Predict the 3D structure of the following.
Amino acid sequence: MSTASGRDTHAWRQPSPPAPPFDPGGPPPGGPGAEVSDARLIHASMTRPEEFSSVFDRHADEIHAYASRRLGPDHADDVTAETFLVAFRKRHRYDLARDDARPWLYGIAANLISGHRRSEVRRLRALARSPHDAGDRGSHEEERGAERASAAALRPALAAALARLSAAERDLLLLIAWADLSYEEAAEALGIPIGTVRSRLHRTRARLRRHLPPFQEDAS
């Protein structure tokens, strides 16, 4: 499976402008030849269910990569398949004003991952016992690593710190760090206000720093 796209994940990214009113019969935004939005595909699938396969083709690899990072490959196939099955069944509830279905799909995936919390924590604790110690790398460097690395490449101290987070804290942090969602998209995925995203993420990063090894003056 391919990895998630390398979109800009900087915390200061500005929110996207509001989408124009949805017009099912209108041309795709951008003119003829422009890529059809997820919203249009979902709308079309109401009467032509086979159209939903394009949503799957567009996003399945990315959802699988995220599930694999969270739970490992053993559970990723099931979580991915169930994510799109749930999405198909609930497509009539989708907000057609939102062109990009990624936050919606990640929200479904996060909810399914919640059924594997114990497996995720066991996985992180196993990684924390890995002999590849973080050595003298500082806590700030470890924190930056959380926003780039896959779970399989986590250093032990960082894996242990992630295991200590609450489920809600880990969901938010990893939707932003590993799924490349913006604050606004993470709020949509989790169904929480943007202010809650900002405050919870601030507390989560502070907790990570407390649980990671202290910064060493002589660190290379």
